[in-house]
Amino acid sequence: MYFLVTAGPTREHIDSVRFLSNPSSGAMGYAVAEAAAQRGHEVCLVSGPTHLSPPKNVEFIAVTSAQEMLEAVLRAHEKCDCLVMVAAVCDYTPAQPVRGKIKKKPGGMNLELRRTTDILAAVADAGGGKVHVGFALEVEDALENAREKLKSKKLDFIVLNGPASFQSDETTATIIGADGSTQHFERTAKKTLAAAIVVSVR
Ligand code: CTP
């Protein structure tokens, strides 16, 4: 199978030297890419900025912003059998990024943001037998919100986790299937969860 995996955060530039982002390390996405490659699958990893080295035997595409990640996923989606969106994609980006450096002025400052494109939603109807796996980072009403995302993004599986997973080698997560099945992992190595995700995809 051909796995298309996204990982890491995106960066949304305010000006040339400042950006909005999140603390995603990329570890979970890189573990999924590695687990798929180790099982003999063809893998393309689209990654936002991280400190990690790409796993062996994986095609690697480095991106920075949500828009760049969208374009890379759209290019590779047609030939993939499975898309696993692990990336922590920024939902908002500065409406008018500035080339150069914004100089400070007296008083406060308002920053206008606009929504980025939801990548999973953008490919939802181009499924055609492809398996789509999403992640859900939830803080409140976790199961309910994850099931809602599973439905609205037309996913085959969603992996529910919490913010404690950021910057950690371990995660507590639940794989929820569109068929209602659930598999829970309590403080489990990301590599173990990654293997379980790859095995779930058939
Ligand atoms: N995602 C995406 N495109 C975006 C934002 C998120 O494809 N612009 C994907 C993520 O990679 C993840 C899933 O959607 O697989 C859910 O991401 P999450 O941040 O939990 O939820 P959002 O859909 O952004 O909703 P909210 O932030 O309101 O909870």
Name every ligand kind in the structure: cytidine-5'-triphosphate
Which outline best applies?
A: globular
Low-confidence stretches: none
**Number of distinct helices:** 5
Query: Radius of gyration in whole Å, from Cα?
Result: 17 Å
Strand content: 25-35%
* Terminus-to-terminus distance: 9 Å
Helix coverage percent:
25-40%
Biggest sheet record: 8 strands, mixed
Largest sheet, order of strands side by side?
Answer: 5-4-1-6-9-10-11-12
Number of strands: 12
Briefly summarize what is shown:
With 202 residues, the chain is an alpha/beta fold.
Tell me about this structure.
Strand 11 (about 170-175) and strand 12 form a beta hairpin. The radius of gyration is 17 Å and the shape is globular. The strands form three sheets. It has an eight-stranded mixed beta sheet, with helices on both faces. Strands 2-3 form a two-stranded antiparallel sheet. Helix content is about 25%, strand content about 30%. It is α/β, with parallel strands linked by helices and about 200 residues long. Helix 1 crosses helix 5 (about 190-200). The mean pLDDT is about 95. The structure holds cytidine-5'-triphosphate.
Structural topology:
Elements: E1 2-7, E2 12-15, E3 18-20, H1 27-38, E4 42-47, E5 59-62, H2 66-77, E6 82-85, E7 92-94, E8 113-115, H3 119-123, E9 131-137, H4 142-152, E10 157-161, E11 170-177, E12 182-189, H5 190-200
Parallel strand pairs: 1-4, 1-6, 4-5, 6-9, 9-10
Antiparallel strand pairs: 2-3, 7-8, 10-11, 11-12
Helix pairs in contact: 1-5
